[in-house]
Please model this.
Amino acid sequence: MSRPRAAAVVAALLLPSLATAQTVADILPLDQIRPGMTGVGRTVFEGTRIDEFQVSVLGVLENAVGPKQSMIIARLEGGPLKETGVIAGMSGSPVFIEGKLVGAVAYGFPFSKETIAGITPIGEMIEATNTDAPRAASSRFPAPLGPGGPARPLDREALTAALRRPLPSIAADVLRGAPTGATLAPLTLPLVFSGFDPSTFEWARGLFGSVGFAPVLGTARGGPFPETLPDLQPGGAVGVSLIEGDLDLSVTGTITHIDKDRVYAFGHPFYNLGPTQFPMKKAYVFSVFPSLYQSWKISTALEAVGTMDQDRTTAIAGRLGRTPRMIPVSVKLTTSRGQERQYGFRIVEDELFSPVLTFVSLLSVLQANERAFGTSTIQVDAKVSLAGPAREDKRREVRVEDLFAHDQPALQASALVAAPLAYLMSNDFERVTVEQVEVDVSSHETVQSATLERAWLERAGPVRPGSLVTLKMMLRTYRGEARTETIPVTIPATASPGIYTLLVADASALTALEQREMRQPFVPRDLDQLIRAINGLRRNSHVYARLLRSDEGAIVAGEYMQSLPPSVLSVLGSPDQGGSIIPIRTASVWDFDLPTDYAVSGSRTLSLTVER
Model:
């Protein structure tokens, strides 16, 4: 290609109109790439202006990323690159040789003094994202089920474990002059937390920084910005949003290629989720922050213009036009100072990221308004509304509420709200659509906890079926105050004579009893049973009483079946019934739960004799 013709191609590609951006660029096949070839790359270093930099090919690593996934190694020069090295946020910057598109800048050497980058071939980017395969199960949040049901898995360790993944790297020491053991790693993606509490950000930085992002604390609406941002075009900045509203969380990279309404970017995965529905946005670059480890673009995502629908090993891809649905989250907070505050934001609808983002965003709201450490109590009441299944017009709801007074209550309250999303969105029965999440939180600067010290029956001696016995309990509060609570114990009229056990316990003690009985993980039969299990989670603020007697029964498919005749037990225990039948030796004849104003701990066991 002659120099005048090449210049014309470059000028055409730099025009800001969307029609020009949609023109299909000529592609230079990988097998025609040779060491010593030179070309130009395009990216935004500041604002929305697309600048050029020079590219010199050093070689091609075949099958570097995976089978038939190769990597072009090149030296970059021009603009600020001499001082900054390869920049996080350049992911996707298109490279042209002889006016033909070669691929996207996507990899770099951390701590490198040389501006050497890995370029993902454009053909592999297009091929990898040209699929409608379903989401892999590994992209779900792994929500474990305990013997008694959902196990509230969302603590910091569970979040870290859920997102942990091996980061791809490419051995590059086969290149002349590269040190032994040198590796190319995907350029990190600047992940901007806007509106987040600094203490939450510090924790989230470690979580997201370990899986390929470069978290930074910023503002999504800083400025000034141009009144009209240019349409997306190759070399321009592009944002992918995870949260938007009063809180904002987004990453920024660079567009590689636009074919009609199809957009290709990054040259490496966002997270390798497969099919996605994330907002794709125009982005603005404030400046480049130089760093010895890896410099990064200070940027923000702004106006949504389409949907990122593919996240694959060699690229992300999306379509211009329709923007995706997001899950609305509303938070009403009553602070310990009596102030009422309202927050509203939307999170992406994703089986892996939705629970994590709910946890992080709610934690930020709580810690921004209340102290993270010290004496405090948080009471939370949350509702997750689901769209009814297609086969019936029915609205499903999950409701969780509890009170937390120890061990950083903001963390526990955030986990309680996020946990149902982990279970519901990762269920194996049917796809659920979360219509909205509503959270009502109140905070107190005192520790509202109590210990169950004593329990006794006001009436001594045997009792008759159908009679009423008063159970007394003494709770000792955090400050040492004694409080007496009363539970009326109703002896069933059908109770047979014998010795009964009256258990008075907190939520964890009663759940532990059931886990010992069940002896295997709870496996729901369908989505409705899973919803019932979540709605039935016991609360820290309740005292539970249960009257038990020796009896034969069984747990069948996760459901308790008590007082079964020997003939039924014999049939259920036969080999033909499989391994889902668990015999039990006690039966509950009466249950009661008493709400209190405290997070209660402790348990007591009493004996009660029934005579006719």
